[in-house]
Amino acid sequence: MFEEVATSKEGEQIINVGPQHPATHGVLHLIITLNGETIVNLEPNLGYIHRSIEKMCESLSYRQFIYTTSRMDYLAAHINNHACALTVEKAMQIEIPERAEVIRILVSELTRIASHELWWGAMAMDLGALSPFFYAFREREVITDIMEETCGARLTMNYMVPGGVMADIHPNFVKRVKDFIIQFKSRIDEYDQLVTGNIIFQNRMKNVGILSKEDAISYGTTGPTARGSGVSCDIRKIYPYSIYGKLQFDEVLETAGDSFARYLVRVKEMKQSISIIEQLIDNIPEGDFQAKTKAVLKLPKGEFYQRVETPRGELGVYIVSEGGTTPYRIKFRSPGFSNLSALNHMIKGHKIGDLVAVMGTLDLVIPDIDR
Amino acid sequence: MFSIENITNSFHNWLSSVLSETLVMLVEMGLIAIAAIALFAVLGLVLVYMERKVAAVIQIRLGPNRVGPMGIFQTSADTLKLVLKEGFMPNNVDKFLYKLAPFVVMITAMLILAPIPFAKGFQIWDINIGVFYITAISSISVIGILMAGWASNNKYSLLGAMRSGAQIVSYELSAGMAVLSIIVLTGSLNLNEIIESQRNGWWIFKGHIPALIAFVIYIIAVTAETNRAPFDMAEAESELTGGFHTEYAGMRFALFFLAEYINIFIVCAIGATLFFGGWMPFHIGNWEGFNHVMDFIPSFVWFFGKTFFLIFLIMWFRWTFPRLRIDQLLNLEWKYLLPISMFNLLLMTVIAIKGWHF
């Protein structure tokens, strides 16, 4: 495969972006064929951070395997855990208490905001504006502090277990989340002025990396990447899981399909997440935070699938069980992989400077792609 | 009134009384060289420290605060580290050009320093075509950058160097036009005469709106010429890792780094000289009392104050704006800045001929 990729016509040159490169935010390797500054072809080369998580899961019990998924998409640990817990609960038909459901949604949406915040900062940093990164981290820090108090970890949280959540929320949780909402709402407008309204930023993002609606579907892109092209694909809306069906929020859709549309989708999604948190934070029901389950979980024989909406798109968990205490096979459908596959289509014919503007809006997390 | 001229003159007289004319010249040249290099080192340290502190304030952090009070020795420590580092050279580089490039960039920066009046009567070389000399010499630095990019045997470096070449060559035009519009008003290329002509008010106030436009164009163009964000195409660390200096390490890298900051200082010093009157204090027309009070502030304070204000402006840009794309960058120059500055120059000429300026 390498020989095939590495041939170039006269006047073209091959350039290797990554695996160590400031713009790839991880160990992604892109083999780019350049004609001057124009990108002719782009070939992602994966596998630098493959940890065979799926294979490892086959020798772990249904309580243990969830913890490996925090290391997949490390910016959305809660949501990965949620997907796994939901699959196990679906297979075993465990009813989980109302309180646990609400707590799950609350931390999931906080995670979504934290993830989008980090993406927002990194996006601006890729485009050369270094300061927004620090502003984004200021907000994200509040969320990680809240998580630390309640879940005991700041990044790779392992809070959700089959049957509910591992522990009850910290007494400070509600107050700190409310403080965060007030703070965040005032600052998101500042960010809009600083970055979204910036003429240089808009020039860099508009009409760059256009992905039409048809292409978005045929490449299997999901999440904000597809919604920026006008594809309605929010799992929380179209196949509601947990208690998302009862909540009031909008699916953010943009139709332009360029980098700026994808940017806007993510920024607006943060506001939607805040509104979801606002609906729930005053209405956390009393009761247990975990259903009574057996110490050793045994899934019935069969195949089980559950999908959730992570900040990057659709995460699917597919478990094949033979009735034992460990899964026979586990497959994760990660959003990043399909989104990355559309990159070549989007970037062709653009300048190398646009690579960061397009790749940034895909919000790639490499450990999620490689697993 | 305090003036450095008195000190230098008495020193020159004393030297002349003990040494022959040739020796005096040689000794003075040596002293000037030492002073210039010392100024270089100090400016580099101060500007890097300033950049880090400005960035820290903008980015809600503290910045360097461990080495010395307020971290003022941080940059010295960093320089020491760079000096002690191995002068690593990758395989298959063009050794001669690779080693030469940092010196070309550095020497160019040093040469431009010559005609700048730092204070009243404090100037290395009073040349009658000062502005022309500066514009001519400053174009040489692009050769050093191209050399570095070519010799490094690295595709990122080459791309960075090519971008830098295109960028510096095009932005020099509008920077030159902006400078010209002040030359039109003063009718002299001598920097001292330009400063003298601003005795009763700085050109940015006297030259009406065209002077203001020229100043804005000048600041944009020199930001691009010094490869600073938002025009840091040549480095663009998120695209090209480090651009032309990707393969440089240790002191060779430090020379590039230092030259960048010295260049910022120089362009800001020229900006301050042309638009804000250099070392000339702030004077308002015939307000004798006010002008007299302003004269008590030493001239070098005025010069460095104005220069550092402009440097702060350029640093502020860097930490606020995203980077442009290379084609947008060239569009901005050729489609907007150059036509505007040409028209502005025409306007300025009319003002100068009609004597409409104050």
Give short descriptive properties of this protein:
heterodimer, A: 371 residues, alpha+beta, Cytochrome-c3 Hydrogenase, chain B, 48% helix, 13% strand, globular, B: 358 residues, mainly alpha, 15 helices
What's a concise summary of this model?
Chain A is an alpha+beta fold. Chain A contains 16 helices and 8 strands.
The oligomeric status of these chains comes to heterodimer
Q: Assign a percent range to the helix content of chain A.
A: 40-55%
With strands numbered from the N-terminus, the spatial order across the biggest sheet of chain A is 1-2-3
Count the beta strands of chain A.
8
Q: Stretches of chain A where pLDDT falls below 50 for ≥5 residues?
A: none
* Percent range for β-strand residues of chain B: under 5%
Strand content of chain A: 5-15%
What does the radius of gyration of chain A come to? 21 Å
Share of residues in helices of chain B: over 70%
Helix and strand element order of chain B: HHHHHHHHHHHHHHH
Main sheet of chain B?
Answer: none
Give the distance, in angstroms, between the N- and C-terminal Cα atoms of chain B.
Answer: 27 Å
CATH superfamily of the largest domain in chain A: Cytochrome-c3 Hydrogenase, chain B
Run of helices and strands of chain A: HEEEHHHHHEEHHHHHHEEEHHHH
Name the overall outline of chain B: globular
Whole-number count of domains of chain B = 1
Description:
The complex is a heterodimer of chains A (371) and B (358). Chain A has 371 residues and is α+β, with helices and mostly antiparallel strands. In chain A, the strands form three sheets. Chain A has a three-stranded antiparallel beta sheet with strand order 1-2-3. A three-stranded antiparallel beta sheet of chain A has the order 6-7-8. In chain A, strands 4-5 form a two-stranded antiparallel sheet. Chain A has two domains: 1-48, no CATH class; 62-370, Cytochrome-c3 Hydrogenase, chain B (Orthogonal Bundle), CATH 1.10.645.10. Chain A has 16 helices and eight strands. Helices cover 70% and strands 0% of the residues of chain B. Chain B has helices spanning 4-18, 21-58, 74-84, 95-112, 130-138, 141-151, 155-186, 191-196, 203-206, 208-225, 237-240, 250-275, 288-295, 299-320, 326-354. The A-B interface holds A 13, 15, 21-23, 37, 124-131, 133-135, 138, 194-195, 198, 200-201, 203-204, 351-356 and B 55, 58-61, 155-156, 159, 163, 229-230, 232-233, 236-241, 319-328.
